[in-house]
Design a protein that fits this description.
Keywords: Membrane, Transmembrane, Transmembrane helix. Residues 13-65 form the YiaAB two helix domain. The protein is mainly α. It is built from two helices and no strands.
Length: 95
């Protein structure tokens, strides 16, 4: 029987993700700040960017929660199957 592998994210990946997010948000803010448009257009773009960032975090959380739920379900199913196989004796006489 094969054991399921647990994927572990490294601290370097977390750092890279955090740095790339910070650079992207700063670049977006810089682009909006220096865009040659009226202030109300700049405000609209800022609100839209803020909405985009918050909805991205919400989507990431939903995907993570769905993945954790499916992982828990598959682990429970695997534990049930392991128990059934451990209790099964193919040479036992039927009752």
């Amino acid at each position: 029987m094969s054991t399921p592998q647990t994927l572990k994210t490294t601290s370097a990946f977390y750092a890279q993700a955090g740095i790339s997010f910070a650079v992207a948000v700063c670049a977006l803010g810089f682009g909006i700040a220096y865009l040659p448009v009226d202030p109300w257009m700049r405000a609209f773009l800022s609100i839209a960017a803020l909405f985009l960032v918050t909805s991205t975090f919400t989507l990431a959380k939903c995907v993570r929660d769905a993945q954790e739920t499916s992982g828990l379900t598959s682990r429970l199913d695997q534990a049930r199957m392991d128990r059934i196989l451990a209790e099964h004796d193919p040479f036992r006489e039927p009752v």
